[in-house]
Write a structure and sequence with these properties.
With 128 residues, the protein is of the alpha+beta class. It is built from two helices and five strands, in the order αβββαββ. It has helices at 7-27, 76-92, and strands spanning 31-38, 43-50, 53-62, 100-109, 116-124.
């Protein structure tokens, strides 16, 4: 029986992914407002501003394809939790003025060097 990575190595991978995503987004003109925002429903990896659009960013890093792609890992349950977290964020935090809200995913394939980064703007919409 093979074991997956330890909790500490998963956290380290997560931090690495968030750092790569933040650097990538900054390089593409987004302003990072917050990282690792802990809310009741979920943790928001990054909150960014793209012009006058507030972006809730989910970072997904994969080191292999055993469990599908990073993009595929943001399932309906995760989308609902991010939607609830975004509602809580908007209700409880002071944020810069923004025209609209969107949900982005930064998918990182770390099985190659340098890692391949894909920014999926408006990756999903909330549905009831």
């Amino acid at each position: 029986m093979t074991r997956g990575p330890s909790a500490s190595s998963r956290r380290a991978l997560g931090r690495r992914g968030e750092q790569l995503a933040e650097r990538f987004l900054r390089g593409h003109g987004l302003r990072i407002l917050a990282r690792n925002v802990h809310l009741r429903h979920a943790e928001i990896d990054l909150v960014a501003l793209d012009g006058d659009v507030l972006c809730i960013v989910e970072v997904r890093l994969r080191t292999g394809s055993n469990f599908g792609t990073a993009r595929e890992s943001v399932d309906a349950r995760k989308r609902r939790r991010l939607g609830a977290a975004a509602s809580e964020l908007l209700a409880t935090r002071r944020l810069p003025r923004h025209r609209s809200l969107r949900f982005d995913v930064v998918a990182i394939d770390a099985s190659v060097e340098p890692p391949r980064i894909e920014h999926l703007r408006d990756a999903f919409a909330l549905t009831r």
